[in-house]
Amino acid sequence: MTAAYNDAWAREREALALERDDEFEERYRAAADATGAIVDQLIAARPRTLAGVRAKAEALNWCHGERFEGLCGSSPGSAPLGCLWPPSTDQRLADAILFDLLALPNPIAV
């Protein structure tokens, strides 16, 4: 599933880089929907490897447009509703785990 996710995300980025003609929105939406379908599968999956858990962290990064700044943002103004500011210990720990996973080399990188 990790390889399928990486392939779908690569196709989505390629679609985003294409010329913005009359068919751009349709091509991009189809690519994004394909990635989203794999993300839905990742959400339901219970990974048995570090690579599988890392794929879930990558999917979270995808949800944030490849600009993940932590679950509660990097500043009080970016903190979503329900987040404490300053972040609580559990929020900081969750962010640390996610950032550590994202920093690992992608074993399926193309």
Structure description:
The chain is mainly α. The chain has one domain. It is 60% helix and 0% strand. The chain contains 4 helices and no strands. It has helices at 2-17, 24-44, 50-63, 89-103. Helix 1 (2-17) runs antiparallel to helix 2 (24-44) and helix 3 packs across helix 4 (89-103). The longest helix has 21 residues, at 24-44. The two termini are 14 Å apart. The relative contact order is 0.15.
Order of helices and strands: HHHH
Number of strands: 0
Largest sheet: none
- The class by helix and strand makeup works out as mainly alpha
Task: Identify the overall geometry.
Answer: globular
Number of DSSP helical runs: 4
- Strand fraction band? under 5%
Helical proportion, percent range: 55-70%
Q: What Rg, in angstroms, do the CA atoms define? A: 16 Å
| Alpha-carbon distance between the two ends | 14 Å
Average pLDDT for all residues: 85
Number of domains: 1
* Low-confidence sequence ranges: none
